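WARN no homologs supplied; continuing
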Amino acid sequence: MKTRETPQPIGNSPAKAQRRKGRLNFIVFSLRLCAFAGKLFREHKRASCLSCIAICLLIISGCGKRRLPLPPVERVQQRTEFLSGAQQGNEIILSWPAPQRNAPNSSVQSIRRIDVYRLAEKPGAPLALTEDEFAARATLVGSVTFEQIQTAGETLTYRDVLELGGQPTRLRYAIRYVNASGQRAAFSNFLSLEPAARIAQAPTLSNDVKIAEDAITLTWQPPAANIDASTPVNLLGYNVYRTDESQTAPGNQPLNAAPIVATEYADKNFQFGNNYRYIVRSVSLGTGGAQVESLNSNSVSVAPRDVFAPAAPERPSVAAPEPSSARLAIFFAANKETDIAGYNLYRSTDPDLPKQNWTKLNQTLLTRTTFQDDKVEPGKTYYYYVTAVDKAGNVSPPSEVGSEKAP
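OK structure emitted
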């Protein structure tokens, strides 16, 4: 239930009386201050007099004067708390969400770069570390430029190239935003990794790609050594990645559910008419039992086109619907292919006539597997065969011939 407050009379409100009393007190104080300044002037203490007069004028001039509100102070964007990363070959690939909102380019608060910091530690060093300690010990290894920020999608990335070898090392990363005036935001969350040196090199993908009606088969050569040139190769298997030609980078998920032990892969989930690009990565056993991928292999582009004809349809069945009807009914089974566009039906009264000379009965592709031939002469035998046509225009071989005498 809504309630209404009774308004107080404006002229008799306690707050109003209090404000009037305050103004009177201020006027009395100002007059006394001016009288004191006049006394000083009569006593020739001009320096003190001028000072008091200035204070008096300043106080009086500021009485009750209202000023325009000041705009809020802009601040550097808050730090991200979602820095993540992983080792790939001899690189650490960092990623984090792009800023949801950036200030206009004319603002000093516009994010102009994102600095990336790295701290190398012994694996057993304490994990607890303050931001001040990190800032004092970490090294600035690179930055994401303003152009990269502008053109980024939902995620920003940075690749830190390492020289692996020697003693095991734990790397701690953090990033921070920097605005147009050079002010730095707080550090992001810390990301700690222990990169492994014995990671397999990338395989070599063969350009000899086999394209069949139901699969694109890739083959590759295994790596000869690890990235630190050591042998035997630390190899668990391979991951295969595919992108459309319009994409600039492979997806995050491989085509295979688990690392492939063999050196070939058949991609059966594709569409004719699309352009694909494939890469393969070796998979090694990393620090702590984690799986670590190599860098990308060379890429291979594949443009599968459907040049595969459907199978020949089954022999059609021919029958007279009624003994007195001057027509023949033709029936045939549908092909098992999923891309069949339709069928063509051919007829002849001479079974030995070359099939390219038989008469096609339909003007457009048949989408049903039945046909009524009502242009027959009683007592004459007619012969029929069927071909299937897929959506790419490929035509099957002719079926076997079916025949029947018209009633």
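Residues 113 and 138 are 18 Å apart (CA to CA).
OK
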